[in-house]
Design goal:
Blueprint: H1 7-140, H2 146-154
Length: about 160
């Protein structure tokens, strides 16, 4: 033993180190490794669930977006139909108003024609009465000119006056 090296002691230390390493491997390293793999698996599972929920949320968002667009389209169609209905109603009301106006105008014409006929009859009657009065007065005063008498009577004067 030249340097005071005891090979037996070195071998025992190596065996001691091997036993210690093996023991620590089975006692500490393997459980820690299992704990870490379980923990890693747990976080992978959380990540997978989060991705699934995110995917479901995106699908729900797309579904609701599509429903919202469909509702907007239905609203636009309903608005267009309401506008068409309103325009149709306005056209119908205008047509009814025109019909009523034509009916009123026709009634007014009939009434005007009737009034004109009555006025004409009354005027003819008055004219006949005036002519009858004038003829009677002319017949009662034969000494004057009938034309002058008629003019005097028409002017409201006396039949015997001369111009």
């Amino acid at each position: 033993m030249p340097l005071n090296i005891d090979w037996q002691q070195i071998l025992l230390h190596w065996m001691n180190l091997a036993i210690l390493t093996g023991g620590l491997y089975f006692i500490l390293y393997k459980p820690v490794k299992q704990f870490m793999s379980k923990r890693e698996e747990y976080y992978r599972e959380l990540d997978r669930r989060a991705e699934e929920k995110l995917s479901q949320a995106n699908q729900a968002h797309e579904t609701y977006q599509a429903k919202l667009e469909q509702a907007d389209e239905e609203i636009r169609q309903a608005r267009a139909q309401a506008q068409l209905a309103a325009q149709q109603s306005v056209k119908e009301q205008l047509a009814q108003a025109k019909d009523q106006a034509q009916h009123i105008v026709a009634l007014a014409r009939v009434e005007a024609e009737h009034s004109r006929d009555q006025i004409m009859k009354q005027s003819k009657r008055e004219l006949k009465e005036l002519a009858a009065k004038a003829a009677k007065k002319l017949a009662t005063h034969p000494d004057t000119d009938p034309f002058d008498q008629f003019l005097n009577l028409a002017e409201g004067g006396k039949p015997n006056e001369k111009r």
